[in-house]
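2024-03-11 09:14:02 INFO worker-7 job=invfold-0412 stage=load source=structure_tokens
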């Protein structure tokens, strides 16, 4: 596995790029959250994030134990699922973790092969390949466990022509707020416990054939109080990027520790979604009530000395609190929401890449100081 590592640059090693990809992934198929009230969460993601109503499953479609709302915006699909009764696994998940990401579904050409290749390499199965069918065709699903209680579902759509998946009906709504320009999932970050990062890096390398894109350590990412370590894993075609964080020793409690405490274990920390125009996207989201982290105004005094020339005017960026960073290949603009549910766990990142392939390392210090101010107000620092 070490041969696939390259800690000093964003480039992947040639051996990795030449190796046969035993788990070809076409992209993220959908992200499923288990939430306490899917109907109201769906309203939030439509209103505040500009997602569109797509599909529904529940009592009306013959499902007795749960309800799922499917929303989409460009290539992003969110599934929001709530239980209809008590005591089941979805209830337990919500009781333990609060609202959070349960399934990161990956779009594949062969869900059976994806399952056998990964389970042969040590993945724990959630369920074996199964075919689900309706009048619009068939979909093959299989699933394996990843960190915490999170799972990867392999979705083989073949020639399925239905709205989302067998068992779902179109969700028609008269309430359709405009999209805000979110295009696709850029990366999804997992928080794992103390000393667990390398174990999960190895899982993605060995079991899923990913390689490490870049590594930074606690010297890069620490403020007076908070610290973390992070490694970014990517699949063969680069469409899937999963940074893995673990807490590092700091003077006070790391934000990763706070997450692990409130989530009761490892889980998805943030979903980063791409836009072509971050000023328009963030303006729309703010107007619709989304709360973002705020860096101090002083951040903008010397940011251009750090990142060099950019195409955008600095004024709207500084007004919205948008962060800027640069690597060898270009720059990026990014901004992070505050946690989207009650517990200080899951949040979103809005990112616009202008050539940069990295993740905003240069912003971590300013950002973590902003997070610490939030932690302080929650008394969890
Ligand atoms: Fe990120």
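2024-03-11 09:14:09 INFO worker-7 stage=emit residues=381
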């Amino acid at each position: 596995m070490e041969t696939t590592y390259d800690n000093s640059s964003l480039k992947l090693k040639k051996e990795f790029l030449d190796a046969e990809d035993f788990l070809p992934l076409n992209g993220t198929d959908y992200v499923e959250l288990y939430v306490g009230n899917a109907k109201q969460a769906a309203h939030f993601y439509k209103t505040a994030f500009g997602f569109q109503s797509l599909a529904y499953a529940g009592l009306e479609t013959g499902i007795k134990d749960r309800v799922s709302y499917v929303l989409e915006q460009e290539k992003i699909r969110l599934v929001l699922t709530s239980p209809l009764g008590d005591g089941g696994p979805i209830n337990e998940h919500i009781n333990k973790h609060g609202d959070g990401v349960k399934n990161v579904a990956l779009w594949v050409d062969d869900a059976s092969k994806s399952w056998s290749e990964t389970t042969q390499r040590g993945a724990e199965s959630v369920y074996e390949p199964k075919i689900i069918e309706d009048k619009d065709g068939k979909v093959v699903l299989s699933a394996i466990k990843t960190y915490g209680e999170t799972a990867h579902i392999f979705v083989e759509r073949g020639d399925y022509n239905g709205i989302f998946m067998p068992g779902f009906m179109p969700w028609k709504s008269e309430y359709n707020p405009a999209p805000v320009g979110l295009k696709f999932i850029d990366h999804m970050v997992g928080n794992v416990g103390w000393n667990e990062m390398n174990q999960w890096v190895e899982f993605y390398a060995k079991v899923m054939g990913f390689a490490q894109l870049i590594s930074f350590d606690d010297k890069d990412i620490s403020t007076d109080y908070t610290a973390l370590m992070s490694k970014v894993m990517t699949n063969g075609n680069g469409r899937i990027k999963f940074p893995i964080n673990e807490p590092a020793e700091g003077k006070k409690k790391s934000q990763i520790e706070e997450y692990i405490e409130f989530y009761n274990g490892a889980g998805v920390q943030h979903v980063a979604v791409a836009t072509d125009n971050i000023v328009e996207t963030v303006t729309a989201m703010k107007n619709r009530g989304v709360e973002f982290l705020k860096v101090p105004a002083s951040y903008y005094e010397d940011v251009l000395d750090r990142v060099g020339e950019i195409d955008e005017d600095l004024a709207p960026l500084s007004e919205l609190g948008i962060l800027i960073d640069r690597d060898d290949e270009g720059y990026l603009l990014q901004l992070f929401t505050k946690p989207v549910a009650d517990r200080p766990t899951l949040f979103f990142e809005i990112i616009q890449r202008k050539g940069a392939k990295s993740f905003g390392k240069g912003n971590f210090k300013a950002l973590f100081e902003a997070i610490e101010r939030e932690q302080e107000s929650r008394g969890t620092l």
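2024-03-11 09:14:09 INFO worker-7 stage=report msg="The first strand starts at residue 27 and ends at 34."
2024-03-11 09:14:10 INFO worker-7 job finished
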